[in-house]
Structure formats: C-alpha cells, structure tokens
Amino acid sequence: MNDLSPTGCTNAPVLRERGQHEVFCGLTGIIWLHRKMQDAFFLVVGSRTCAHLLQSAAGVMIFAEPRFGTAILEEGDLAGLKDANDELDREVARLLDRRPDIKQLFLVGSCPSEVIKLDLARAAERLTDIHAPHVRVLNYSGSGIETTFTQGEDACLASMVPGLPATDAHNLLLVGALPDVVEDQARDLLDRIGLPQVSVLPAPRADGAPSVGPNTRYALLQPFLGDTSAALDRRGATRIDAPFPFGEEGTTLWLKAVAAAFGIAPEVVDRVTEAPRARARKAVAAAAETLSGKRITFLPDSQLELSLARFLTRECGMEAVEVGTPFLHGPIMAPELALLPGGARLSEGQDVDKQLDRVRADRPDITVCGLGLANPLEREGLTTKWAIELVFSPVHFYEQAGDLAGLFARPLRRKAILSGAPSLRCSSNMPGSGAEPRRVP
C-alpha cells in the first residue's frame, strides 16, 4: 500500500459549506503548547469566559503555576473608556517581574482587535522594545470567530517564524508540537536512517530555536499548519510533501519522503523500520477486527480528518461515508487525497444543521465530531467519537498506531457490550422509596 499514484480522491468534488459552525476556539492550543515550550508564557487578552475555559479545559491543579493566564477585559475596556494599552503594559510588567524565567511572551487575542479595542501586533512590538533582550513578545489570534481549536497552534508557530535565526546550512526541520515521548521516537527513527541533526519547531526553550534558510527542508507533523508552512516558505525553506505519520503506512511514507529529500534510499528506511512496522501492523490488526467493514463520518473539527480517514480506510478496512474538515489545504493534503479511496463525500467548512441531516440520513457506524454534537447524536442512537481526544492523545508514528486504531474501536466495542447487556432501572430515584430495581429485557 505504499503507492503515491494520483488516484483516490485527488479530483473528487468538495462540498464547501459556510454556515453555522460548532468548534472549540484557537485558545485551546495553549493547553498543549504551554507544556511544550518551557520558558514561554501565554497571556490571553480576553473575558472572564476565556479565563474559565482555559482553567477548566486545562485541568490545572490548585497548587500548579502554569505558563498561561488571562488579562481580563472589563466593560470599560470594551467600551473604550480606558486606555487598554497602558493597562496591558502594566500587567505585562507585573507578570515579568514575578516570573523572570519567561523568555517568550505570547499575547493571544480572544476576539478580533476591533472587539477588544487593542492592536496586539503593535502592542507586542512595543513591549518587545521595552523588555528586550530578556523577553521577546509575540502575538496571535485565538478567536473562535477566526480559528478552530487546532489553528491556535498554527497561528502561534507562524508568529515565531519571522524571528527564527537565518542559516545557509542544509538542515531538516520538523514542524508541529508532539508529546515528548513521540518526538523522541521520531528523532530516533531519523537518526537510524541517517539524519541525526534534526531541529523541531517549537523548541523547548527560546535559546534553542531552530535556524531557517534557503537550504532548509521541513516536514510537517500536523495537518493543520498551513499558515506556519506559508511563513516558512517565505523564509526560503522547502516543504517535504508526504502523507502524515499516522499508522504504519503513513509513517513509512513520511519517513521515505524525508529520507529522499536528503538523498537516502527507500531501502534504508525499509531496513531500519522493519521491526517497528511489524509491531504497528500487529497492533492495528487487533483493532481492525472490530473496525473492518464499519462506516465512518467525520464532521469538521481538527483538520486531522483526511489523514485519519486515510488510515482507517486503508489499514483498518473501514468505509468513509463523509470526510469533513474545517479547511482543506490542497497542496498540503494532496498526498492524503491521492491515497484516500474514492467514494467518500468530501466537505470543507461547516453548516451544522445540514451536516447533521446528512449524518441522520447516512446512519454511519461511528461519527467523529466535537463535544457539543456528540451527546445529541448519542441520544439518537448514533455512536460518536470526540474529535478533540485525537489531538490530545499520542497517535503519531509506529508505536502509537495500535492506540490510534483503538480509539475508534472502543466506542464500537462498548456499544456492542451495552446492546447485549441487561440494564437496571428503578421505578423511583427518591431516597428511601424502598423501590426494588427491576430488570429490563
């Protein structure tokens, strides 16, 4: 199955929808980015609602001191009655005085600048002048009006690219945030293939930022990094076209594409990866027993949808009914489209009511969607999978291939168990009612 011939869904029509959408906002990316960059701080300029979202979604313990916070805008700020720039300068000064370990400070807008009455790009330039060289201040938008939740990472990394050091060296750059253990696996595979000098964006610390120049070749680790890719292109770097490293096939093709960009033969990749490929195939096969022949629909949420659909159809034997994605980046997704079996309905963007009508008509075995849509669909008897779990779970490269397949197999196994098991129901749920539970056939 290691064929990149232009077939599949390359020329398939795409249904483009621009209606009501239901996704988390780009602020959500802070939850994994603040753990990845050890000397960075994310200051969200927004409302109390934004503060509550981050606090609850991140699950911060009471004694933790995370690397994010919220500069809360009050009514006077939003009405333009106060000089929000003066207030922001004061809060940043207080933050940096308290946290001298901060080397990169991201000002993250929770809404467009016309709503929050602040030009955060100019504010970042001004604050960099004030606090340089100790701290570099950057900005990006995490607004739910402008971004879906994975695009927060894209906007963050894109904001870093113009300030990366320049180089003329021939170097490899991996782009995208992965759990440390998965990143280590990728580095180990590349080292054994013959590419020991690998840098990653984002780097753990500001002083380890990767260098970029006309001889840089970069490989994306996440499908949602279109703006970051464009920023690297403007710096003269060249993207390595490849499917994304999900599953045994995707990982192998990704590694071969990277190797080819540096003149390393595919036979070297085959020899180095023989054992992990076998482990991945065995692990995926266990889940494929449940997934094979099942029909799946992806509602647009994370931009992982095309890559995951390719993995599930080609390696797990599933049938893709509809594959929806918030934005279909043609050049980046071309290798995935070539491999995705024909027949799937492709859609870009979202119109919630229309898409839900199609789900109800199609009745797929499993629907991948956001949290806000999962419970209503479950109530209607449709099995769902939370899209956000696929972003927070380690799912890249060989050692996680079985876990990735298992994330889709578990809801189907759970449904099968529950549908065949007797349930208990009480005639009254009042304490002390004395009601005996009766078995429902």
From TrEMBL:
Xref: InterPro entries: LIPOR_BchN/ChlN, Nase/OxRdtase_comp1, Protochl_reductN
UniProt keyword list: 4Fe-4S, ATP-binding, Bacteriochlorophyll biosynthesis, Chlorophyll biosynthesis, Iron, Iron-sulfur, Metal-binding, Nucleotide-binding, Oxidoreductase, Photosynthesis
Binding site for [4Fe-4S] cluster: C25, C50, C111
Necessary cofactors: [4Fe-4S] cluster
EC supergroup of this enzyme: oxidoreductase
Co-factor remark: Binds 1 [4Fe-4S] cluster per heterodimer. The cluster is bound at the heterodimer interface by residues from both subunits.
Family matches, as SUPFAM superfamilies: Helical backbone' metal receptor
Limits of the Nitrogenase/oxidoreductase component domain: 25-385
Enzyme nomenclature, EC number: 1.3.7.7
Reactions catalysed according to its record: chlorophyllide a + oxidized 2[4Fe-4S]-[ferredoxin] + 2 ADP + 2 phosphate = protochlorophyllide a + reduced 2[4Fe-4S]-[ferredoxin] + 2 ATP + 2 H2O
PANTHER family (UniProt xref): LIGHT-INDEPENDENT PROTOCHLOROPHYLLIDE REDUCTASE SUBUNIT N
General function of this protein: Component of the dark-operative protochlorophyllide reductase (DPOR) that uses Mg-ATP and reduced ferredoxin to reduce ring D of protochlorophyllide (Pchlide) to form chlorophyllide a (Chlide). This reaction is light-independent. The NB-protein (BchN-BchB) is the catalytic component of the complex.
NCBIfam families per record: DPOR_bchN, PRK02842.1
The family this protein is said to belong to: Belongs to the BchN/ChlN family.
Assembly and oligomerization: Protochlorophyllide reductase is composed of three subunits; BchL, BchN and BchB. Forms a heterotetramer of two BchB and two BchN subunits.
Name this polypeptide is given: Light-independent protochlorophyllide reductase subunit N
Species for this entry: Jannaschia pagri
Underlying gene: bchN
